[in-house]
């Protein structure tokens, strides 16, 4: 049988033909044995494999989590963002799919060449703007051009969000995104050929009581230099490398030269606040440690050794007797 999946309409048509006698089961088997030709649309050339699309999905799922935290802090309201879909389509189809009046952030991502688009649904864009201006986050019914002040406010908001994009992509490549232009009419965009394949990552976003979509459009020409890095083999391999002998020696040297606070504790005692207030020079404080008992030596604030007091070269000193058992219990 052919590996193609039949649509519901095709299934209904086959069942109807068999039930009415127009086609017998034998005829259907003969048609199934005939090799079918699959139509290929060169305008919708698939430039990315499923494996690479999954990698892009993971990257932007992380980006969505980072954006959720960022927008929640900036807008001071409940925000939820998640990846809705990741598709590869012609650039012309993407332009036709977005509203005539919308907020489009155009930014570059050095060292990669080319531009990336971030299209923000007007309902969400104006809700963000209302929150930033001190409102409750409502969106006007009619979307018009942004004023210079509104454009500057929105530009600052999205420019700071690019730090999250940099972090999300850090496992693949170190990019330095920066905003180059803000546009509200997609018909003015002439960045690439209409038939160029682009990856469109769509996010569902909820801000307070408003909801909408954010789309990121990445042309294939931008990602082409790092397409091999989007494979599972590259994604799964650890970025950490075993240290060299020289690095291990340097680490050991630095550890040996690290300073530690070592305290020999003579003992402890208790007194009332009243006695403490009347302490004077020459008063004696009784400790709970007997004179013939070993002292406790602490490294940092952890008891590690027992020792006996003494002196060395006219200075007070302690001599280690043995390590203390159970000294690491506080670390658990």
What is the name of the CATH superfamily of the largest domain? CheC-like
SSE class? alpha+beta
* Helicity, as a percent range: 25-40%
CATH architecture of the largest domain: 3-Layer(aba) Sandwich
Shape annotation: elongated
Share in β-strands:
15-25%
Order of strands in the sheet with most strands:
1-5-6-3-2-4
CATH topology of the largest domain: Chemotaxis protein chec
N-end to C-end Cα span: 62 Å
**Largest sheet, described in full?**
6 strands, antiparallel
Rounded to an integer, what's the Rg over CA atoms? 35 Å
What's the order of the H and E elements?
HHHEHEEHHEEEHHHEHEEE
Count of individual domains: 3
Q: Uncertain runs with pLDDT below 50, 5 residues or more?
A: none
Give the tally of β-strands.
Answer: 10
Q: What's the rounded overall pLDDT mean? A: 79
CATH hierarchy class name of the largest domain = Alpha Beta
General description of the model:
This protein is of the alpha+beta class and 332 residues long. The protein folds into three domains: 8-39, no CATH class; 50-236, CheC-like (Chemotaxis protein chec, 3-Layer(aba) Sandwich), CATH 3.40.1550.10; 255-325, Surface presentation of antigens (SPOA) (Roll). The protein has helices at residues 8-20, 25-33, 50-75, 91-97, 122-132, 148-169, 220-223, 232-236, 245-256, 273-277, and strands at residues 79-90, 103-108, 115-120, 178-183, 197-207, 210-219, 262-265, 295-299, 302-312, 315-323. The protein has a six-stranded antiparallel beta sheet with strand order 1-5-6-3-2-4. It has a four-stranded antiparallel beta sheet with strand order 7-8-9-10, with no helix packed on it. α3 packs across α6 (148-169). GO terms for molecular function: cytoskeletal motor activity. It holds the Pfam family FliM.
């Amino acid at each position: 049988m052919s590996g193609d999946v039949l649509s519901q309409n095709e299934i209904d048509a086959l069942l109807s033909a068999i039930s009415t006698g127009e086609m017998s089961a034998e005829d259907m088997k003969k048609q199934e044995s005939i090799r079918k030709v699959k139509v290929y649309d060169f305008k919708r050339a698939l430039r990315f494999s499923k494996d690479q699309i999954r990698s892009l999905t993971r990257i932007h799922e992380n980006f969505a989590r980072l954006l959720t935290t960022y927008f929640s802090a900036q807008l001071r309201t409940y925000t939820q963002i998640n990846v809705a879909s990741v598709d590869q389509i012609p650039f012309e189809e993407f332009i036709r799919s977005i509203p005539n009046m919308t907020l489009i952030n155009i930014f570059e991502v050095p060292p990669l060449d080319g531009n990336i688009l971030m299209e923000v649904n007007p309902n969400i864009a104006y809700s963000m703007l209302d929150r930033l201006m001190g409102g409750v986050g409502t969106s006007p019914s009619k979307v018009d051009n942004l004023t210079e002040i509104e454009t500057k406010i929105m530009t600052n908001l999205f420019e700071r969000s690019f730090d999250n994009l940099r972090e999300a992509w850090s496992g693949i490549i170190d990019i330095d995104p920066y905003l180059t232009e803000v546009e509200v009419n997609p018909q003015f965009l002439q960045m690439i050929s209409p038939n160029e394949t682009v990856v469109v990552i769509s996010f569902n976003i909820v801000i307070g009581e408003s909801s909408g979509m954010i789309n990121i459009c990445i042309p294939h020409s931008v990602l082409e230099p790092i397409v091999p890095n989007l494979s599972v083999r590259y994604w799964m391999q650890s970025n950490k490398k075993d240290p060299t002998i020289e690095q291990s020696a340097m680490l050991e040297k630095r550890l040996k030269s690290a300073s530690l606070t070592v305290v020999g504790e003579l003992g402890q005692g208790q007194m009332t606040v009243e006695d403490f207030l009347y302490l004077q020079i020459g008063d004696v404080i009784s400790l709970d440690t007997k004179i013939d008992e070993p002292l406790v030596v602490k490294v940092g604030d952890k008891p590690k050794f027992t020792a006996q007091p003494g002196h060395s070269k006219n200075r007070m000193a302690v001599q280690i007797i043995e390590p203390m058992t159970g000294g690491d219990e506080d670390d658990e």
